[in-house]
């Protein structure tokens, strides 16, 4: 597996056929109900003959399938609708986090067709070894996908750190990674995805960014602008503005976990002091609740906190309130800066939202200038802890939809 880019000219930008393929497939993907060929001709402005030819290509390439016609009154045979295919190309999502590895397969319809999680503390594990284990998990996912009639044509990897344009992980402080050449390390293993023009074999991105994209494209659709906060051992944020991910100049936006909430406070792994994740990260909450982190398996930490809070345990409730207060201080600053009206609590925060939301909202009400006449919504994520891996795989699926000609050239 390696990080590659489509060769210049491999997909000719001016090709009318390729543009028509993308136009028609995009319309099918965005439709509220399965459109007929006539519907597509009206929506795109293409002739019926052109639409029919494009649809035949899409059907033959297993990108779309025909659905049963909707009931109708009046004369004439009802037209069959078109939907994205559940078999054919699919995206592979990979995630490395502090205490787990995850692999996910998402088809063109957005359905999760495979997901596995391996729980382990990865801080003492060398990056090459962690990625080797992830490749093993991805191999099992590829085999399962093939059994379901799916072909993996691209992968996206989510990591909790700063990633440059070449997939180099500059810094992942909670993992202890620095300048890790992820694409080069993965290239030492056999490829797990098919090479398709226009679809990179591998992209690497910040896990909070991919989680935000997963939330943006989840069903039912939510707002087009929001702040998505992934609360794990570390805390990251994805910023979505008008339906697009805001990355910043270097692609490193969203490091909310390292906003100082107590400037002279506890030292952080990043080298700063008083960072949010030292007060609202998973380990900080567990410690404040009086739980022994070493004796608490990674996959039960959040569940145990929720269980204790539900039972009215004073230490757990106090720890969650203090974490929510610290989180609210940081969130209020972001809301003031960007004028957002929705905050989504993802990752481990999703299950803890009943106890985190009240103090977060209290800080927003106290600190956000516009809160009195324009309330801010704080809610749990639709995807929860699965958001980053699902968002990673979904980003590949959407790239296929946006550039179907590469897949058709390969499958033809």
UniProtKB/TrEMBL annotation:
InterPro entries the UniProt entry points to: ATPase_NBD, ROK, WH-like_DNA-bd_sf, WH_DNA-bd_sf
Lineage top rank: taxon: Bacteria
Family, per entry: Belongs to the ROK (NagC/XylR) family.
Name of the protein: ROK family protein
Organism the protein comes from: Micromonospora parva
């Amino acid at each position: 597996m390696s990080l590659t880019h489509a060769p210049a000219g491999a997909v000719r930008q001016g090709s009318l056929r390729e543009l028509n393929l993308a136009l028609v497939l995009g319309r099918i993907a965005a439709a509220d109900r399965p459109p007929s060929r006539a519907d597509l001709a009206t929506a795109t402005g293409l002739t019926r003959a052109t639409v029919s030819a494009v649809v035949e290509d899409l059907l033959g390439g297993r990108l779309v399938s025909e659905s049963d016609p909707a009931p109708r009154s009046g004369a004439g045979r009802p037209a069959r609708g078109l939907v994205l295919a559940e078999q054919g190309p699919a995206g592979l999502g990979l995630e490395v986090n502090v205490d787990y590895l995850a692999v996910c397969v998402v088809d063109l319809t957005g359905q999760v067709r495979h997901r596995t999680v391996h729980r382990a503390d990865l801080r003492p594990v060398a990056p090459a070894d962690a990625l080797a284990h992830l490749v093993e998990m991805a191999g099992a996912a590829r085999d399962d996908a093939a059994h379901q009639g799916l072909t993996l044509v691209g992968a996206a990897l989510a990591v909790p750190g700063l990633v440059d344009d070449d997939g180099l992980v500059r810094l992942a402080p909670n993992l202890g990674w620095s300048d890790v050449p992820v694409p080069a390390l993965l290239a030492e293993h056999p490829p797990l995805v098919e090479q398709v023009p226009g679809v990179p074999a591998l992209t690497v991105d910040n896990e909070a960014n991919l989680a935000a994209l997963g939330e943006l494209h989840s069903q039912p659709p939510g707002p087009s602008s929001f702040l998505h906060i992934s609360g794990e051992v570390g805390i990251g944020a994805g910023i979505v503005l008008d339906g697009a991910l805001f990355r910043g100049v270097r692609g490193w936006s969203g490091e909310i976990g390292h906003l100082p909430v107590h400037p002279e406070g506890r030292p952080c792994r990043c080298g700063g002091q008083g960072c949010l994740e030292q007060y609202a990260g998973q380990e900080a909450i567990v410690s404040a609740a009086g739980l022994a982190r070493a004796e608490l398996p990674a996959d039960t930490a959040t569940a145990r906190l929720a269980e204790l809070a539900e039972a009215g345990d004073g230490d757990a409730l106090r720890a969650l309130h203090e974490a929510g207060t610290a989180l609210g201080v940081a969130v209020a600053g972001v809301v003031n800066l960007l004028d957002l009206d929705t905050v989504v609590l993802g990752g481990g925060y999703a299950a803890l939202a009943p106890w985190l939301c009240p103090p977060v909202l209290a800080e927003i009400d106290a600190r956000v200038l516009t809160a009195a006449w324009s309330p801010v919504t704080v809610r749990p994520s639709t995807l929860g802890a699965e958001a980053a891996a699902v968002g990673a795989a979904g980003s590949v699926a959407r790239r296929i939809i946006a550039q179907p000609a590469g897949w058709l050239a390969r499958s033809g």
